[in-house]
């Protein structure tokens, strides 16, 4: 046997997944809050309210 039990591998996978997705979440928040992207996000926030004139 290799010495690794199912419980040990499962615990490692859970902890690694938590850290991985936590880092992705923090990176997304940092990206969204950067002042450089403020104008783009304000323009995109108003996009659904614009009238295209293309009514089917």
Descriptive tags:
56 residues
Structure overview:
By secondary structure, the protein is an all-alpha fold. It has helices spanning 6-33, 38-46. The termini are far apart.
Low-confidence stretches are none
The global form is: elongated
Helical residues, percent? 55-70%
Averaged pLDDT: 88
From N to C, what is the helix and strand string? Answer: HH
% residues in beta strands: under 5%
Described by strand count, sense and barrel closure, the largest sheet is: none
Amino- and carboxy-terminal Cα gap: 66 Å
CA radius of gyration: 22 Å
According to DSSP, the number of beta strands is 0
Structural class: mainly alpha
Number of helical stretches of at least 4 residues: 2
In short:
This protein is mainly alpha-helical.
List the helices and strands and how they pair.
Elements: H1 6-33, H2 38-46
